Structure to design on (430 residues):
């Protein structure tokens, strides 16, 4: 793991943050309704399927709430040393540095799930990310390995925007419009299915299973183009969920006109469309978004260009389309990291992605000016719920022979979800 210093911690000056409660420990707010302070604090936890929503109350034992930072870090290091090879800790790019400094691997969700595969001797995989990431790691890991999410309240507001029931309902409505059996779609005389479901990695295991059972596939922000090409070889159109922006940005870059990308709002009949509107559709975009990436604006890019002539702007494809269009580059977290790696000393780079990752890049490359486009510090509120207190707790439980906060995907979901993931791995760029 790249050595990290605690100096990269976010400075939580109240005037510069989106919520002053960010300076508090998460147990002060992770039992409150909603997603807590941070980028998705305004988002509504889906009411239509509360059991599916991943923003669940946390449950840190009292003793850990009282420990100061120094003691927590000492205990984490000791537990990690005791567990040795039996443990692997994964830290997402967007995770806070106080936690990431203890990780064996840092990466995006899929890189981390694959990194865990390189450690088959590890009996416990502690995933310092969010719920859907731990689910994916559980699907890809061996039956003996236990995947642990230190705080069960670390969900993902975007993943929660598409739940199994509403996607099933949408699928039935779509089947009626295009005239196919929702349980058993058949190819037409051209050998193509009417619709293929494509889910972004940032979705529940149940939705990955939904795709696996219906000829569909998973994509990441790195391979969305390859996956859509795969889908269009097999179908006339795609139902893309839950992130409308990744779907739109990818399809637009492939030359699909915006008129052929109707939005599907799950709270409205036919997603808010008429059956006629849907006839020409090439991609039906689920009405979901990432609360972190929707904060970026074209005005921020204009300001960066005014203040830093020659600045290079790179944003994540979960940003709205006008932001991606105004940037010099768009790419996944890994692509952003590689972009910075390939830059030169003295370069000025404005980044449109989560603040923890941008600050870490800025600390790793002090000879370049690297800053976040958003002047307000507003981390991913759900990722932020993993605090060193939670990490110390689950590790010390492991030392004591107990497994807390295990994420287990039932076999009936894991098997079809893996089919959709395997299709993604087998899809090759044209
Ligand atoms: S950054 Fe966005 S997509 Fe990623 S976990 Fe946070 S809310 Fe979900």
């Amino acid at each position: 793991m790249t050595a990290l210093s605690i100096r990269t911690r976010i400075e939580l000056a109240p005037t510069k943050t989106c919520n002053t409660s960010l300076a508090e420990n998460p147990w002060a707010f992770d039992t409150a309704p909603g997603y807590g302070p941070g980028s998705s604090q305004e988002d509504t936890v889906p009411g239509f399927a509360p059991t599916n929503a991943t923003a669940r109350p946390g449950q840190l034992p009292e003793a850990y709430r009282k420990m100061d930072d120094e003691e927590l870090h000492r205990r984490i290091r000791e537990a990690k040393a005791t567990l040795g090879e039996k443990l692997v800790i994964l830290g997402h790019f967007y995770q806070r540095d106080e936690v990431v400094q203890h990780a064996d691997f840092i990466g995006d969700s899929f890189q981390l799930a694959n990194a865990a595969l390189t450690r088959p001797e590890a009996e416990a995989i502690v995933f310092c990310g969010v719920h859907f990431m731990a689910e994916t790691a559980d699907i890809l890991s061996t039956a003996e390995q236990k995947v642990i999410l230190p705080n069960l309240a670390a969900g993902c507001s975007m993943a929660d925007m598409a739940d199994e029931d509403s996607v099933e309902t949408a699928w039935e409505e779509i089947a009626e419009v295009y005239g196919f059996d929702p349980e058993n779609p058949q190819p037409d005389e051209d050998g193509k299915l009417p619709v293929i479901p494509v889910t972004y990695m940032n979705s529940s295991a149940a939705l990955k299973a939904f795709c696996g059972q219906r000829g569909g596939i998973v994509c990441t922000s790195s391979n969305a183009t390859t996956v859509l090409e795969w889908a269009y070889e097999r179908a006339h159109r795609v139902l893309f969920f839950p992130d409308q922006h990744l779907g739109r940005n990818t399809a637009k870059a492939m030359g699909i006109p915006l008129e052929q990308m109707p939005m599907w709002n799950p709270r409205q009949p036919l997603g808010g469309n008429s059956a006629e509107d849907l006839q020409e559709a090439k991609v039906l975009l689920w009405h979901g978004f990432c609360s972190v990436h929707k904060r970026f604006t074209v005005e921020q890019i204009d300001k960066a260009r005014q203040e830093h002539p020659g600045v290079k702007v790179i944003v994540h494809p979960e940003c709205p389309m006008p932001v991606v269009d105004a940037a010099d580059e768009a790419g996944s977290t890994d692509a952003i990291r590689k972009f910075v790696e390939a830059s030169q000393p003295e370069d000025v780079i404005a980044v449109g992605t989560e603040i923890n990752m941008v600050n870490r890049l800025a600390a790793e490359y002090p000879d370049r000016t690297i800053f976040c486009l958003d002047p307000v510090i507003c981390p991913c509120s759900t990722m932020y719920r993993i605090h060193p207190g939670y990490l110390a707790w689950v590790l010390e439980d492991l030392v004591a022979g107990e497994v807390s906060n295990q994420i287990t995907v039932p076999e009936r979901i894991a098997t079809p979800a893996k089919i959709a993931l395997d299709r993604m791995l087998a899809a090759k760029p044209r």
Observations:
- Residues 40, 94, 130, 156-158, 202, 290-292, 354, 380, 382-383 surround iron/sulfur cluster (CB under 6 Å).
- Residues 1-8, 48-52 have pLDDT under 50 and may be disordered.
- The chain is about 35% helix and 15% strand.
